[in-house]
Amino acid sequence: MAAPSIMSDPTTRRQLIGRLAAIAGAALLRPALASAAPGSRYRAVAFDGFVLFDPRPIPALANELFGDKGPRLVEAWRTRQFDYQWLQALAGRYQDFWKSTESALLFAARSTGVDLKPEARDRLMQAWLRLEAWPDVAPSLLALRKANLRLAPLANLTPAILEAAIANSHLEGLLDEVISTDRAKTYKPDPRAYQLGLDVLRLRREEIVFAASAGWDAAGSRWFGYPTYWVNRSGAPAEELGVTADGSGPAMAGLVAFAGKS
User: Which among 220, 225, 201 has a CA at the least distance from the CA of 156?
Assistant: First the structure.
């Protein structure tokens, strides 16, 4: 049986996310609580990595390699991946996305009884460098650029993973910046991670729409003070965290309509 995860307890999960939201201190959080100013025009969109890039080939590869054990391995891997990243951020023991993901994979294999040979481990890890964009991404980025919006991923993925995914997807020239939270040596939803959008784009938070791919990231972005659109491709329910995205929908088209408005 797989070892239990602290994140499987909803109360613990809410407490952990809430604790991360407080890391940067009251001086940062007080102005973040204000919503976008009435009548303000958005000037940029910052995207979570999985709004842009489709991670589904990674679990598909695990299923190919391990058959019936693949889904259990993937679930344990995904859960421990978040556990390690957020715990490391809280403890000040940062490891980047690549290292924490590999450590999570090794633990997941042991906890699910999967015989993870070095070749299989390397194939699963290298799959992170082969990510490609969802089909609706390129036309949506073009539409957002036509609306005079600056565009940048703001993701927990390493710079190498982001740059490879951009190249794999032929998105060069459509993105103005590539922002990995590795710059701040932390992970979203730490406010220091969201602060990178302001620092790199040199805009106010009410001028930047944050596009989240997960409910916890939508909550973290709203806590920080970004106008937030949740591209909820999986149809997941909203988190019970006392805050909701400003808009949501199953695809990029809704984000284009939301971010393009004055």
Answer: 220
Q: Are residues 250 and 208 in the same domain?
A: yes
Which are the contacts of 56, defined by CB distance < 8 A and separation ≥ 6? Answer: none
Q: How many other CB atoms are there within 10 angstroms of residue 177's CB atom? A: 15
- Among residues 9, 48, 54, 96, which one is catalytic? 48
Assigned token pair, 111: 């906890």
What residue numbers bound the domain in which 99 lies?
57-130
| Cα–Cα distance for residue pair 54/130, rounded to 1 Å | 10
Tell me: do 150 and 123 sit in the same domain.
Answer: no
pTM for the structure as a whole = 0.85
Torsion of CA 184, 155, 166, 158, to 10 degrees: 50
pLDDT tens for 168-197 read 999 999 999 999 999 999 999 999 999 999
pLDDT in tens, 26-62: 333 333 333 333 444 899 999 999 999 999 999 999 9
48 among known catalytic residues: yes
Do 159 and 240 reside in the same domain of the chain? yes
Question: What whole-number distance in Å separates Cα of residue 135 and Cα of residue 110?
Answer: 35
Taking residue 12's Cβ as centre, other Cβ atoms within 10 Å add up to 12
* Whether residue 110 is found in the same domain as residue 189: no
Give the type of residue at 201: L
Residue after which a domain boundary falls, among 130, 154, 184? 130
CA dist., res. 144 & res. 116, Å (int): 43
**How many structural domains is the chain composed of?**
2
Residue identified by tokens 């290298």 is 126
Q: Are the C-beta atoms of residues 209 and 47 closer than 8 Å to each other?
A: no
